[in-house]
Amino acid sequence: MVVARGLAPHSEPAADRSTQRLAGLIVLLALVQIYLGGLVAGLHAGLSYNTWPLMDGKVIPSDLLLLEPAWRNFFENPKMVQFVHRVGAYTLFVVALWHMIATWRRQPGTTHARRATLLFLLVLVQASIGIGTLLMQVPLHMALTHQGVALMVLGFAAAHWRGTKGAYPLPTEIAVRG
Ligand code: HEM
Question: Model-level pTM?
Answer without folding.
Answer: 0.94
